[in-house]
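[READ THE FOLD]
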Amino acid sequence: MPWQVLLALMAVCYVWGWDDVAGSLALCWGGLARVGEVLAAKRRNLVVPADVGLEALPGPKQVFLSVLEPKTRFKAARHQCLKIDQPQLVEAIIFAFGRLGPEASLWPRSGSALRLRFKKLLAAVGLPIGAVEGVRDFDLASLRAGGATWLMNVTESPDLVRRRGRWITNKVMEIYVQEVSAMMYLPRLEQGQRENLFAWTNSFQSALEFAQWSSSLHLSPSLRHVLLQHGVCNA
């Protein structure tokens, strides 16, 4: 999943009031997390800058997630940790989960509920089932692969990507890193699809700021779409 698609989906989340969905997508894509790891996580497993007194300090911020019962626990380290350091995704994760109580689940609903919302988000940005002929549709597993592919393109460091993704070998990692497929996906969309997708992508930051503003006023997330329909934006 290219980063443009990720940000578009998250922008829709903020308009619809699905902040926890946006945070979950950010964890899976930015932290190269397996979906099940996010579904099983509680707030006490998440470390944000405020938890360690770093929220007011200048410079880049990071978020960490302790993984419960990792899939590779019998072949690699039993205790594993995810790291997210992309600024926009860090901000999204803090906004979604930073104020939860220690025992609160990051995703309090079922996995099927997350999958259903994910499909609705794809349809909203113009990527319904069969959006690109001959190309497999995105699913939740595409988030981890998309994050790994982006990290490989940016760093050109297979060892770093393998460590971040907690893969045992480079051979396993290469199954997830699909550089050519990611590069060719967007050009294969119809022009109208690309324009709609990029409009959502480019609105990500303003959508996040609108969500933060409405949250600061203690407005129900479900009201955001109504507010926007009436032309009410953050001051």
User: Anything to note?
Assistant: DSSP finds twelve helices and three strands in the chain. Residues 3-229 form a domain with the hpI Integrase; Chain A fold (CATH 1.10.443.10). The mean pLDDT is 89. The longest strand covers residues 63-67.
